[in-house]
Amino acid sequence: MRLCYPPATASLTCATDASMSLKAIAKDLGLSVTTVSRALNGYDDVSADTKARVQAAADVRGYRPNTLARRLKMGKIDAVGLIFPFTSHPLSNSAFVEMVGCITRELAKHEIDLLLVPDELGTFSWRRLIESKRVDAMLVAHTLNDDPRLLDLQQRNFPFLALGRSTCLTQDYAWFDFDNRAGMQMAVDHLAGLGHQRIAFLGENNQQSFISQRRQGYLDGLMANKLPLNPQYVNKVSPSRRAGYQATQALLALPQPPTAIVCDCNMHGEGAALALYEAGLLLSGAVSLIIYDGLPSDSLPDVAVTAIRQGTREAVGLQIAEMTMALIRNEPMSQLQVLWQPELQAGVTAHPPKL
After folding, report:
1. In Å, how far from its chain's centre is CA 224?
2. Which has the least CB within 10 A, 57, 97, 141, 196?
3. If one looks up domain 79-178+313-340 in CATH, what number appears?
């Protein structure tokens, strides 16, 4: 076992050993030390085949790059921050937590750490990470239509990837998003096609862009199918099981209750499913239900709910990680703007209305 003693000696010894290992790998493969080094550090000017050969040889020798030396040489920190609004309960949303886990795993494959940065709107708590040079880029979750976080990052000319689109930026920027408006209209179109005319909506009660997009999709769906808008059917509730449960009970107590409900969040969607299940309305087909993102994996109602899906968590994590790596490499913004289309997942909770 090789030990590296005090700080100054350790740095010199490790750097020397790393240099010797690179030379040995280069000699084995008949390549230059520079090519071996660039292959191990993922440079695009090295072919995939050469990278694979170099990595295989490095694995055989048990070689690992000197991370500190590589960071100093390339001017990188190998860390990315994920800013999310602390007040919107995102950590209680299983879809968000699973997505974060998948992003973390994919970035870790490139030896990049993901730092969670909870932020209350207006505090700009991420600034200390940027000013102290502790991150290479920022991911911004739960974007707003008019988002001061994105404006601040753009004015600083700091690399960021918005997880959602915003209307407040005048310059081009990197973003990854789902077509939330189209997804919710898809749900309304499906129910209208089954014959429903009284379709209620449970939506979150804040100004995040994906929420306003989903609400607009609901309204567009009503208009496209020439259905009336009943203000009593449009609810803005907290993204919690309790809020969804109580809002659904209130809808069922109306003189003319809806025959179908669409939910823009799987948290209050679970509450809605539980209220319908307890009333004997969910599996009987008396009231149809479609939930954006479906039910959480640990949902109390064990029902194959009809849902709007946006890709697996693994696929989302991989996409965001790949875009983050491209952002750090300063690839063109035109290649860093991706819009995924949702799909309707068949379930047992959407039926023609009972007359």
Report:
1. 30
2. 97
3. 3.40.50.2300
Model confidence at 94, pLDDT cuts 50, 70, 90, reads low
Q: Under CATH, which architecture does the 180-310 domain have?
A: 3-Layer(aba) Sandwich (3.40)
Cβ-Cβ contacts under 8 Å for 62 (sequence gap 6 or more) = none
Q: What is the pLDDT of residues 235-271, one digit of tens each?
A: 999 888 999 999 999 999 999 999 999 999 888 999 9
pLDDT tens for each residue of 288-328:
999 999 988 878 888 999 999 987 778 888 899 999 999 98
What are the backbone angles phi and psi of residue 271, rounded to the nearest 5°? Answer: -60, -40
Phi-psi sector, 181: left (phi>0), alpha (psi -120 to 50), beta: alpha
Q: Which amino acid is at 250?
A: A
Instruction: Name the residue among 337, 340, 336, 338 with its Cα closest to residue 310.
Output: 340
pLDDT at 9: 39
For 7, the token pair is: 């700080």
Nearest CA among 110, 117, 98, 7 for reference residue 67? 110
Q: What is the pTM of this model?
A: 0.76
**Tokens (6 digits) for 192:** 């209208």
Kindly state the tokens that stand for 70: 């590589």
Say how far apart CA 295 and CA 93 lie, in whole Å.
11
What pairs with residue 200 in β-bridges?
Answer: 261
For residue 204, give the 3-state DSSP assignment.
Answer: strand
Q: Does domain 7-74 have CATH number 1.10.260.40?
A: yes
One-letter identity of residue 299: S
Domains 7-74 and 180-310 share a fold: no
